[in-house]
Structure of Ribulose-phosphate 3-epimerase:
Amino acid sequence: MGGRISPSIMCADFRNLETTIRALERARVDYLHVDIMDGSFVPNFTLGPDFINSVREMTDIPFDIHLMINRPEDFLPIFAIRPGDIVSVHQEATIHLQRTLQQIRDTGAKVSVALNPSTPIYTLDDILDDIDIVLIMTVNPGFAGQKLVPATLGKIHKLKQYLEQVGHSHIEIEVDGNVSCENAQKMRLAGADIFVAGTSSIFKKDQDLYELTEKFREYIT
Ligand SMILES: O=C(CO)[C@H](O)[C@H](O)COP(=O)(O)O
């Protein structure tokens, strides 16, 4: 299977959201990556449950909900999560991580743990049976348009090897942050499966979203 595309909807032009969604449907993207920020876990605010509900009315593309919030366990119930979605919580944001992962599992969504660039892979040791996906942040989360943290390329490779060694190679690797075409190609070689596409690749001012998405796919197949 080739790499899958998860466009970061916070990078879209909200004045033309419907047009954006139709272009992404035409380009057969796999998910819509929805960043939720709380101004505490990260120094920024973004989308919320009302936004998700509105976009749900426009499309059947599964959502890839990235909760960049502290204590995600308190807020999971207010999101309209569906089976087939991905829900990511940060390892650094919840004290009882295993319990929070079970909460996600109960919704029928795919369970994902996000790691900031400085969070080591060994923190996954005791939750491998509870997750479907690891989301490797390749920038420090909070803002679009940042530069890749170079060490994260090696981290993707290390994670891929580690998952094979511990007999959990079915766990997929998602990458988020400065996933340009060139970086995506390196990330694919390192073992990434799902690619968050933002301002570095498909959302570029005055350029065609559909065409950029088709071009991006060539780098991850
Ligand atoms: O998670 C994010 C910010 O924290 C965004 O989804 C992502 O960074 C957007 O992509 P790009 O880096 O290409 O603008």
In short: The mean pLDDT is 97. The radius of gyration is 16 Å. Residues 8, 10-11, 33, 35, 139, 141-146, 176-179, 196, 198-200 surround ribulose-5-phosphate (CB under 6 Å). Residues 4-218 form a domain with the TIM Barrel fold (CATH 3.20.20.70).
